[in-house]
Give the backbone structure.
Amino acid sequence: MTVLQLDRISKRFGNFQALNQVSMELKEGEIYGFIGPNGAGKSTTIRILLGMLKATEGRAVLFGKDAWKDAAEIHKRCAYVPGDVYVWPNLTGGEVIDVLLKMNGSYSKKKRDEWVERFQFDPTKKARSYSKGNRQKIALIAAFASEADLFILDEPTSGLDPLMEHIFQQGVRGVKEAGKTVLLSSHILSEVEKLCDRVAIIRRGEIIERGTLDDLRHLTRMQIQAETREVPEGLAKLSGVHQLEETGKQFSFQADTDHMEGIINYLNKYGVRKIESTPPMLEDLFMRHYEGKSVEENVQ
Amino acid sequence: MRKHIKGTGILFPILLRQHRLRLLLWLAGLVLVTCSVAYAYPDMYPDQASREAYAMTMENPAMIAMLGIGYDHYQKIGSMFALEMLLFSAIAVAIMNILLMSKLTRDDEENGILELVQSRSVGRLSYLAASFMVMLLVNILLIILLTAAMTAMQIDGFDFSGIVLYSSLLGCFGFLAGTLTAFFAHFVTSSRGAGILSFGALFFFYILRAVGDVEAAFLSWISPLGWLSRAYVFVENSWTPAGLLLVSGIGFGIIAFIMQAKRDIGDGLLPERAGSVYASAFLKTKAGLVIRLQKTMILMWVLGILLLHIVFALILGDLETFFLENEAMQAFLTGEGNVMEQFIVLLMAIMALFITAPVIISFLRLRGEEKANRTELLFSRAVSRMQLLRAYLVPSIIIAVLLPILQALVLWSVGAAVSEDMMTLTDVLGASVVYIPAILLVLGFTVLLIGWIPKATSLVWLFLVYGFVVIYLGDILELPNWLRNLSVYEHVPVYPSEELSYAAILILCGISVLLVLIGALGYKRRDIEG
């Protein structure tokens, strides 16, 4: 079942085209990664989803309802964590969590206290004295403790330490196990790699790539480090081999995943002593799109 | 010492640039208003008869409490001008300095600007030193501009030494207000807190002076606002009060610097208590949240306004005694449109402006929250635009409706206790509540601006400033009727001396409702920034 659908959304601020024909579809129970650098349009997209900005063109539908017209109705089933959490400075952290939970109706106090405990959060301080990470915890606790069906997380871990990031990842997995849907916007690729089923990459307001992680990996290259008994002459000319660096019998290069078979067979002829391969990181994929043309040319 | 103020020279122009536009507007406004009033004065009181009439209106306890003591038997034009203008101009200058310094000290610390600056090769006291230099420059500019402008106009009765003293008193009072704010900024952890303490002190000075001028002169000598009229400017030209202001300003300034050197960044001297773990049931409602966030602000305004009424009501007793002792003037007290009634009607007109301030501040928070990216949290929950707008209208409307009733009750009950000739409760209440529709109308404009031109919401303050100019200076400046009618407050029937025009009240209410509806429509349709 489709939980969230963006249909050719465009947004203009004056002369600035912030989003151009962005489409996206989230199915129930999946974790969808939304990747892009700062200023690419991730937060604008999310604000349109939340009904805070009105799309210039296109339609955003959540749970079968219009994101702009039925915002409050839709949000009963949503939980949102912004990247920068701003809270009322003169309320305590605990009060803010309660207020946010209550705005969506009733909530379980037990669950709320559990999450306060898990994030090791001190709810008695005035919000103005919390650090960025602690303010993020407020929004995360209010999200995980709610009965939402869709979690919209906009760079939710940028202020968390690694331990807390781990708790966060457990939370997201728990949500998925409960059959709920997650939209995770991020530029921390390891996080996306660990959690997401499918990803979409946005650049300058346009979606430039989308699919499952496996789909996207086909587009990338393995990093190979190897040592052979004899020097493999002509390796550089072999198709699918890029950026070869050699020091005698030790060398490293990048290999296109679809040419892997040929390359291994070729190397075997020279007596492989040692071979290490690193799987393609989303990082590489990301860089390929972001470094613009120079990398594209390298690939060809 | 040198190392503590390293970098001040670099910071000063940056800070100055940050605030120059606002400060220029303040200075221009202050000079313009002062000069236009000064220009009008000689024509208003050309002969002995008109001066005696002026003396008669001014020389009673109520007016003394409001404006301060008169001197020189109201003979010199300059002294009459100073009586009417000096106190309130000083308060305006103080407001400018308080806003400036709470921004430059606590606000910049709260926003992390100070931390960023302090991480560079900059002395511990440099930021404060640069802030002081900006504040000092503004007050010196005020003295120079005011002196130059008033001297250039060559008005009869305004001699040069008087003009210099008058301007210097304002500048020195501004300096004291600025240093006092820097001093208070050390006690709290937010700029809002620093503002509340400083404005609270200013208010306390005013009350102290009002009671002191009427009852016990020594109280006025405790209040810096009381020192102003003791300069007998344009008559004796005593520089002692200016010196006192300057010395106490320097005193507070030195303490502020010492505290800055000793205090941790981000720390306040008043202790912060651990708060509650859970939100109360009240806080969990939308209107409850809005009211809770504004609790302190609303409480301060309500207490301040009620306290003013208690002071003025107590003075009503003196007013009675004053007129009983002057048999010739007894007619004023008991006749049609007597002095007490005139005084209460004027008081209510001014108070309507004061009450509008918290009404607007309260509603403008909706925009403030948006700019601080905090409405985002609510709108991402099951909260609709209309629900939040309504939640913000609740406290505004409560203040606009209840405070006029409350102030009338306080004024009447205290007044009735000290004076036998107190107006009836109905009349006092009527004089106060007739202004409710006008206050609501200004609120309506605020909603309209937030809905359609959110960037220009501060324009709504013009209603207040203009309303004040018309009430306070309308007669002096001889404003034509059409100009007066631009002020919303002028459309309110003057009760009880005029008949209650229900039509006028209904029209004002109707327009308010319409403005709120149109504003709400805009708020529903527009993009939310954060």
In short: The interface with chain A takes residues 110, 189-190, 272, 274-279, 283-286, 289, 292-293, 372-374, 376-385, 387, 525, 527-528, 530 of chain B (CB under 8 Å). The longest helix of chain B spans residues 286-325. Residues 284-530 of chain B form one domain. The two ends of chain B are 44 Å apart (CA to CA).
